[in-house]
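Students often ask why inverse folding is considered easier than folding. One informal answer: many sequences map to the same fold, so there is more than one right answer. In these notes we will look at a single instance of the problem. The structure comes first.
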């Protein structure tokens, strides 16, 4: 057996990894699964300085000064400008002071300006994709419009991704225009399904979440463009439901229900205008820490070092496992920065309020995209996915998983791979993810209940499952980072495909419980629906949560505000 890792292993591995990072001019690459952050193709180091941009070069001196590629500088500066614009928007264009029309126009024009600044003429793709999708909705009709919009939007996105990858520069890590298009594609397809649900399907055919999100009238062209291209979310999202966005723009007061401690009575009251200042400040602090970590630590731990011949030949197996985990963990702060900043921008504009908890504290996580603590300490594959890129997970659930007629898990992973892009590594990651998800589900359903009675045993079980989850996640997403087939297979072969084989053996040996159709994974950020409807929705895998995640299994304390909307 290989020797245990020691200080000499660590001393040898980390400087060598840093050398590889400097030699290749790359930072540690993106972590797992759902990732549409503009930094998902962001490099670092000297090579990245040469990255070109189709957007403005006005900030080139700043790019040279901070030694970051111009496209990344444009993105960060535009997001900071959007943050200031959001504060101005909430203060001077508040719904009580101006009309919804003006708010729609200003939000759309500012969004298109930021897109033009970052991506130049490529920003026209955003308008073209949105415009053609709107035309399809109008001429096709509500019965089949969701299918046509889905095929067109995803096809248009894929065409742009193929063009970017295979015509311009394969493997170029830069903040490119396909990132915002991924978010717009989510919005186009989500709204098409919501209109189909609200204007064609019968009420009894809808799930509780579909009933809450259903749109009862066709949006105007201005509303549609504002939803897709507003300045708060055009660069980094996150995805939000059309009803939530329109409610925010029109300034409708929320009818909230707060459960009392005994759970027997509800106190109803009108929400006026809660302040987002504390939430925004906290999120900006997280952004600062994440950016600092990315600028100082991430570049010394390149993921590519996992397939370095010298590293594999000289470092012990335990040390290779540790470095695999550390290198992928070090890549995540760039996503924490981009998504948390995007969330703060929406909150600063007054968007993202989700009601009050039982203590009366305001909650600004309606469209939050991640929960850092539960990502880093996840004890199951599912728990990681539930807290990573939350809004994309909800989109996959709503447009694919709960509507699939067969193999919903497989179809959902395939859709996720297509949506992410055309690199072969994406497909290797998501196909591996299917095996990991099914095997993890089978193990937890058959084994976990034996270890939850005794607290000490449960603690040991959680520690073991945390280690297994972090290794499995890192193992799964390496092809997502390496992009190409050859280095991906080089990595998996160096591990002798051990986790693939283990997953297949688990699926062959352990029975996989068949879940009821329509019983799906609990939404980390739910649409707020009435208690009665909430109790009707069964969630697949609700028993799969570790008790360390109990806070997310607690009953939501806000009711659906949508019945008051006459969409």
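Output (designed amino acids):
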């Amino acid at each position: 057996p290989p020797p245990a890792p020691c200080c000499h292993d660590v001393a040898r591995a980390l400087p060598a990894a840093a050398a590889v990072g400097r030699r290749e001019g790359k930072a540690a690459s993106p972590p797992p699964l759902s990732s549409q952050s503009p930094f998902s193709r962001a490099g670092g180091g000297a090579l990245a300085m040469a990255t070109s941009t189709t957007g403005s070069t006005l900030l080139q001196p700043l790019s040279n000064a901070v030694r970051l590629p111009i496209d990344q500088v444009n993105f960060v500066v535009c997001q900071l400008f959007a943050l200031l614009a959001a504060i101005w928007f909430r203060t001077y264009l508040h719904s009580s002071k101006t009309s919804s029309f003006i708010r729609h126009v200003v939000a759309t024009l500012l969004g298109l300006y930021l897109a033009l600044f970052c991506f130049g003429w490529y920003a026209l793709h955003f308008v073209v994709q949105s415009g053609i999708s709107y035309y399809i909705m109008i001429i096709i009709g509500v019965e089949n419009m969701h299918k046509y919009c889905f095929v067109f939007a995803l096809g248009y996105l894929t065409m742009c991704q193929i063009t970017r990858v295979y015509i311009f520069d394969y493997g170029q890590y830069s903040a490119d225009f396909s990132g915002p298009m991924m978010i717009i594609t989510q919005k186009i397809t989500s709204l098409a399904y919501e209109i189909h649900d609200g204007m064609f399907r019968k009420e009894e055919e809808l799930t509780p979440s579909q009933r809450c999100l259903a749109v009862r009238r066709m949006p105007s062209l201005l509303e549609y463009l504002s939803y897709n291209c507003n300045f708060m979310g055009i660069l980094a999202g996150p995805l939000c439901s059309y009803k939530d966005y329109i409610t925010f723009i029109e300034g409708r007061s929320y009818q909230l229900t707060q459960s009392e401690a005994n759970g027997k009575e509800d106190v109803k009251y009108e929400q006026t205008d809660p302040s987002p200042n504390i939430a925004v400040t906290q999120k900006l602090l997280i952004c600062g820490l994440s950016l600092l970590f990315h600028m100082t630590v991430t570049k010394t731990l390149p993921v590519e070092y996992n397939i370095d011949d010298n590293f594999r030949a000289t470092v012990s197996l335990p040390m290779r496992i540790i470095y695999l985990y550390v290198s992928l963990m070090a890549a995540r702060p760039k996503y924490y920065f981009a998504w948390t900043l995007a969330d703060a921008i929406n909150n600063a504009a007054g968007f993202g309020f989700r009601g009050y908890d039982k203590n009366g504290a305001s909650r600004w996580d309606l469209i939050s995209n991640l929960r850092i603590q539960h990502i880093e300490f996840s004890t199951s594959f599912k728990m990681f996915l539930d807290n990573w890129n939350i809004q994309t997970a909800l989109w996959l659930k709503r447009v694919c998983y709960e509507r699939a007629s067969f193999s919903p898990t497989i179809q959902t992973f395939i859709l996720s791979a297509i949506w992410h892009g055309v690199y072969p590594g994406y497909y290797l990651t998501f196909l591996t993810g299917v095996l990991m998800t099914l095997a993890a589900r089978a193990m937890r359903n058959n084994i976990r209940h034996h270890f939850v009675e005794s607290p000490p045993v449960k603690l040991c079980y959680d520690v073991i499952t945390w280690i297994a989850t972090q290794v499995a996640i890192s193992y799964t997403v390496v092809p997502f980072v390496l992009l190409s087939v050859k280095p991906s297979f080089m990595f998996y072969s160096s591990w002798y495909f051990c986790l693939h084989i283990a997953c297949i053996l688990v699926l062959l040996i352990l029975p996989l419980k068949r879940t009821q159709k329509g019983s799906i994974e609990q939404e980390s950020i739910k649409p707020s629906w009435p208690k009665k409807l909430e109790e009707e929705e069964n969630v697949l895998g609700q028993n799969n949560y570790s008790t360390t995640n109990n806070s997310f299994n607690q009953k939501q304390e806000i009711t659906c505000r949508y019945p008051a909307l006459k969409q």
